[in-house]
Design goal:
Largest sheet: 10 strands, antiparallel
Shape: elongated
Strand content: 25-35%
Pfam families: DAGK_cat (PF00781), YegS_C (PF19279)
GO molecular function: ATP binding; sphingosine kinase activity
Structural class: alpha+beta
Organism: Atta cephalotes
Protein name: sphingosine kinase
EC number: 2.7.1.91
Amino acid sequence: MVERKHWPMEDSVQGTSSAVLEEIFYVTSKRNTYYKVKLTEKGLSLQKEHNGATKIETIALGDIIGCRCMRSKRRNTGSCACRPGASKSQMKLVESAELYQQCDELDMSAYLYIYAYTLKKTRMKVTLRRERTTITLRFRSFDKYEDNLREASRWRLAIKCLVANVPVPKNLMSPSHGNLETLVGACPGENRKLLVLVNPKSGPGRGRDTFQKRIHPILSEAERSYEIHVTKCSNYAREFVRTRDIYQWSGLLMVGGDGIVFEVVNGIFQRPDWEKALRELPLGVIPCGSGNGLAKSIAHAKKEPYDRNPLLISALSAVKCKKTSMDIVRVETRNQILFSFLSVGWGLLADIDIESERLRAIGGQRFTVWSVARLIGLRTYKGKVSYLPCNKVPTTENMENGNIYHKDYIAENILSHSRSYGDELDRCCAKPESEPKDFYNTFGESSNDLNGYDDNDMITENLALETENERRHRLDSFYSATSAKSTYFSTGSASSYHSMEDDNSTEIDAENICNNQVMYGPSSTLPALTSQFSNCWTTIQGEFIMVHAAYQTHLGQDYFFAPRAALADGIIWLLIAKAGISRANLVQFLLGLSSGTHVTCPGVDMIPVKAFRIEPMEGTSGHITVDGEEVDYGPLQAEIFSSLASVMTP
């Protein structure tokens, strides 16, 4: 029998925050080791005690996305469905009928799984990445499952309140409070679902598969329910958002490239209640397209290591319930009014964007291939560009060759490494039988990469800790065959993954949408497209290689177009390259787009403006794009409206 140790109440590890909950847990992989686990307003503190030695590590609260209460599932439950010849329908029936009934009656423990994605240095010690961390707290001090579940639920409630930034109900934290239903019902959460719009043809065409395998598990861990709709044709998302009751959802999450974001944004501005929609419904994007400029710009603004795992960083934005303001640009042509979140282009970059569509199957590499083609057959465009200069511009931030990661991220007490392999926690609705063996490795490195880590790392695998009762022997041990191989299922609601089918009565005929439908939004402060400007404007006339305006830092994952831009700074960054620039300088320009050094190329001017107008010469032809979508070739003017929309951020 192991004597239970008591941990006296004290301030946090650094003496700056008092504990909300604390408990002694025993590590399952070492018999003579125990942990003092403390939950504070800053995160989860793990104090390891081993043969008199003490080591402390923490998981920051901002890295925790959710937690779930589990119970051990009876071993081999449903094995009958795996017999030779069993159909998929039989397997699904076994899952739904037995998963929540056939529990392990010998194990009265309640398991609290805490999911976090912590920042960790890569092997090169230069960049950072987000890595999945799972902490398992096994509550087994009582002989009844309900009693252990009550203790686990108390921790779950406290964690969820802290993550959601709402007050922890102190009256429910006392062990004397024994009402399990009250503990479960007090957990904060969004009653409305996320609306997920999936473009199955974006980029290489793997949007639907990517969401199911890579994004759904993270939403499930954070208990963010959602309703998914797959777009069926061009402008489907635009018409969907325009016509539906979108306030039944808590946010709009788009799975695809910048094209589906463009549709959703303009669908919102076709609603008379556009102000309310933009105010109440943040926009999120899962990058599955060729460009993915908005997703990269959001991560860049929040200094997240996007390039290491774009899908993970964007998925974390959808579950952390954080949002920030974003500028929107009103674009006016001869025939229509549009609202843009990314860029307006005329000339070289617009040609590359539109003409490379025939190479969409190769993904983002299509831009590189077509850049070479356009350099060989370089074009010039005659016309006039006018702009309203911006008087106040933020100071340039110090950067080293585009490196956006700051030393502030390197914390001594960040949990070094923890991972769960091969578990099937709450994955029943995500077709676990079809998930790849290295499913969790997609969020970090492969399992083979673990071999070289420092042995001093406190946590090197899925950390499973359990409580102990000093008045009785252990009910069982994780060293036993039964408990070591058991699986667990959630005692809460099942995963919310499902595919919604549109009712035939509300079928969207998006192919016949007319671009001349009424556009709402803020009224323009500019003169008519055919009118002259005041003396405050600057006009340049002649031949141009390109004119490109951007209001986000990135036009694509590797296009660091406007290094000084911010999500909501009220500035359009207008890049002008006049005819006469050499091909060598253009090559330098294109190569510098990935690092932001292109703005220093001779013959290239980057001008901060509030509004601009492009007027191609009559009788000429070419491409003009808005957020990568081609619009009618002709006069165009645009102005920025600061902080008009909001986006989900990690």
